[in-house]
Design brief:
Blueprint: H1 4-7, H2 15-21, H3 24-36, H4 42-58, E1 63-67, E2 79-81, E3 83-85, E4 91-93, H5 97-101, E5 102-103, E6 124-127, E7 134-136, E8 139-147, H6 157-177, E9 186-200, H7 201-205, H8 208-213, H9 238-253, E10 258-263, E11 269-274, E12 277-278, H10 279-299, E13 302-305, E14 318-327, H11 340-359, H12 361-367, H13 371-374, E15 389-390, H14 393-404, H15 428-431, E16 439-441, E17 446-452, H16 457-480, H17 485-500, H18 512-521, H19 530-533, H20 540-548, H21 554-608, H22 615-644, H23 651-679, H24 690-694
Parallel strand pairs: 1-8, 15-16
Antiparallel strand pairs: 1-2, 3-4, 5-6, 6-8, 7-8, 9-11, 9-12, 9-13, 9-14, 10-11, 14-17, 16-17
Helix pairs in contact: 3-4, 6-16, 9-10, 11-16, 11-17, 12-16, 14-17, 16-17, 21-22, 21-23, 22-23
The protein binds adenosine-5'-diphosphate and magnesium ion (MG).
Magnesium ion (MG) binds at residues 193, 320.
């Protein structure tokens, strides 16, 4: 029987393949590029390209593509054949080092937020040798960054790689201060837990809203939702199990470490988690995972919904971004160590994260902001839109003891002196209980839980890496010049705790009182929508921090802000148009047909016997008439509001108008339609309802 190790990574030109297919000196030189970021010379690139091509052709590949991640949030590829004519009239399969390293897709239609006028030169793609090439279908995919000729990043990978570099640089400075002279690199790692819904193809096809927008815009509550908690971790249905089995196999072939799978809280909702890996690879893998989830679903007659909120009234889908930083020697810097010195180092890195999350709450909120995710944050199914950190009682007590110079009971009731005392081991049990926190310490990593299911994880990790790099830079600047390292260290940790403890919250994030306390007492930010938060990307402090670490240029930030707001507007405008369309061409005709048939039947009954009251029919017809009028009226108001968006001065004003006018009208229209659905005979309703959708897969 074929076992998983037999085919794991079989479609990846990974280290094993490199070793097997490359000459020793070529391999050594490529390895150095991968591990240390040294430049690759063209001779080596040619040899690598040739080996890669031979390997890929043997596996049936006919084309290659530079696979990149434009600002649309999904991936892009343009296929070129290996084919090259030979003088004898035949063809040979060719692939050069130049083609491996650099590509020039005519990709001028991708959003660039003004970074590159379409008439201008094209952007180019550049190989990211730290993420292995792989075969998808019949195409060799080469993970690449996408830039303009002026050097501006047009994608999500470039800033991510830059943020990893910034973190590496500052973390190494700090490690050197602790006497670590051997670590060569510090990298951040991520394990993203991916949630999704599965419904049948037939149900999907019958809903224009799902097809146009990825979510239901109408739908009365199903009599049964998630209230019984009988789906979470429940037995996986055979059809879903078959799907997961094939999905795993496809992911494993691509070297993606899909590990855990289970049913989630809502009916039809599931989760897949891989084993964590280096951030840029995790990002590539998560993009691939989302793509393959959808492809495999198709083969099973299913549709995989990655929208953050496909159904109102049951939980939406998120993505937990488990993040940590470690040295190339395998030391996790967010893991409390065994010696006092390691613990002091751990506390400093912990403080760096605390300070980063407090100073750049806005950037973290921005990094997960989309129209879809706005439905989840703060809706008591996902963390609030207010960013805070959960540390757990033990760690919290340690920090309190340090801040106030009081004895910590965990260590024999004496004053904590950094560099002298051993911290207790924090068990997972005490650190992982809180599921409502946006940013939770879970023993040796942080779990950032605000991401939406369809988000690229690049943005969140760019902000996280950069903000932590900034804290570490401030620490290193201070400590490198300190006369007495230990005293300065102790003081700095105390100061961080004192200055930033407002961001630490160990209570229930769903509690109404928390939002009040967070905003009114602690002064934390609460940006409810994408329209609220996105413009703050360009706040001076944010621009300064991100440009000073070389993660983004100011122009790149402006372009991102513009594109994200545009996406927000376009998404909601498409939703609103779809609603208006469905209301006018499907819902109103159905309501009218049912109401008039009901009226007719009442009239027929009365003709038979004038004494009959027909109060049931009359009641239905009356209420449906009222609702039909309201639906028509709200649809018209919505269409008018959409038209007036054209008056907005710029995209920021447009997004504000959408937030203030369009969203409310959409809710009102939905409310009337959903009530009409509950009163209209099912045989008249033009599309399947929530009960059909949520329980469609057996
Ligand atoms: P859960 O959060 O559901 O309890 P786990 O804690 O076991 O699940 O793991 C969640 C994710 O965190 C997995 O993808 C796992 O690989 C990842 N993870 C575990 N350790 C680390 C780490 N040091 N850095 C980053 N991610 C990690
Ligand atoms: Mg989880």
């Amino acid at each position: 029987m074929r076992t998983v190790p037999d085919y794991f990574g079989s479609m990846v030109f990974d280290d094993r393949m490199m070793r097997a297919h490359l000459a020793a000196d070529v391999y050594a030189s490529l390895r150095k590029t991968i591990d240390q970021g040294t430049e690759l010379d063209i001779g080596v690139a040619n040899a690598v390209a040739e080996a890669m091509k031979n390997w890929a052709v043997e596996k049936g590949a006919t084309h290659y593509t530079h696979w990149f991640q434009p600002l649309t949030g999904i991936t892009a590829e343009k296929h070129d054949g290996f084919l090259s004519p030979s003088p004898d009239g035949g063809v040979i399969m060719e692939f050069s080092g130049k083609e491996l390293i650099k590509g020039e897709p005519d990709a001028s239609s991708f959003p660039s937020g003004g970074l590159r006028a379409t008439f201008e030169a094209r952007g180019y793609t550049a190989w990211d040798p730290t993420s292995y090439a792989f075969i998808k279908g019949k195409t060799l995919c080469i993970p690449t960054a996408f830039c303009s000729y002026g050097g501006q990043a047009l994608d999500k990978k470039t800033p991510l790689l830059r943020s990893m570099e910034a973190l590496n640089k500052q973390a190494l400075r700090v490690l050197r201060l602790f006497g670590n002279d051997t670590a060569k690199r510090v990298v951040s790692s991520v394990g993203p837990e991916q949630e999704y819904f599965l419904i049948t193809r037939e149900m999907y096809d019958a809903r224009p809203d799902l097809r146009m927008t990825g979510r239901t815009l109408f739908g009365a509550k199903s009599p049964k939702g998630q209230e019984m908690d009988d789906h979470y971790f429940g037995v996986i249905k055979p059809r879903v199990a078959a799907y997961m089995e094939e999905l795993n196999e496809e992911l494993w072939k691509l070297g993606i470490l899909a590990k855990t799978e289970h049913n989630e809280v809502a009916p039809a909702q599931h989760e897949l988690a891989p084993i964590y890996t280096t951030t840029n690879i995790a990002t590539d893998h998560n993009q691939l995972t989302m793509e393959i989830m959808q492809k495999v679903a198709e083969k099973h007659g299913l549709v995989c919904l990655l929208h953050e909120k496909p159904f109102a009234g049951v939980n939406g889908s998120g993505k937990h971004n488990n993040w940590s930083i470690a040295t190339d020697q395998g030391q996790n810097l967010l893991s409390p160590g065994a010696t006092p010195y390691e613990n002091a180092q751990f506390l400093l890195f912990l403080c760096a994260v605390i300070k980063a999350v407090d100073d750049y709450q806005d950037l973290l909120r921005i990094s997960v902001a989309t129209a879809g995710n706005d439905h989840r944050l703060g809706a008591n199914e996902a963390p609030p839109a207010v960013v805070s950190i959960f540390l757990g009682d033990e760690l919290n007590a340690v920090l309190e003891a340090i801040e106030t110079n009081t004895p910590y009971k965990g260590v024999e009731k004496k004053l904590m002196k950094l560099g002298a005392d051993v911290l207790p081991k924090f068990s997972r049990d005490t650190t992982d209980r809180n599921r409502t926190s946006p940013f939770a310490f879970t023993g040796n990593k942080f779990e950032f839980r605000m991401l939406g299911s369809s988000n690229s994880i690049a943005c969140a990790n760019i902000m996280l890496n950069s903000a932590v790099a900034e804290s570490l830079k401030i620490y290193a600047d201070r400590l490198e010049g300190a006369a007495d390292f230990e005293t300065a260290l102790h003081e700095m940790i105390r100061k961080t705790i004192k200055d930033h403890k407002r961001i630490i919250f160990n209570g229930n994030g769903y509690d109404e009182g928390w939002i009040k306390e967070a905003t009114e007492v602690r002064g934390l930010l609460n940006y409810r929508t994408t329209a609220d938060c996105m413009p703050h990307l360009l706040d001076k402090k944010n621009v300064n921090m991100l440009t000073s670490h070389g993660v983004y240029s100011e122009e790149e930030l402006k372009s991102r802000c513009e594109i994200m707001l545009e996406n927000y507007c376009k998404t909601i405008v498409i939703e609103a148009n779809t609603m208006a369309n469905m209301a006018k061409t499907q819902i109103l005709p159905a309501v009218e047909a049912y109401a008039s048939d009901t009226a007719r039947s009442a009239a027929a009954k009365k003709a038979l016997d004038p004494a009959l009251a027909c109060s049931y029919e009359t009641g239905v017809v009356r209420r449906l008439s009222v609702l039909a009028d309201r639906i028509a009226e709200k649809t018209e108001e919505l269409e008018t509001a959409l038209l007036s968006l054209g008056d907005a001065e710029n995209v920021e004003a447009e997004s504000a108008a959408i937030r203030d006018h369009v969203l409310g009208l959409m809710s009102e229209l939905r409310l009337a339609c959903d009530e009409a659905e509950t009163m209209t005979a099912k045989s008249y309703w033009p599309f399947p309802g929530y009960g059909d959708l949520l329980f469609s897969v057996h």
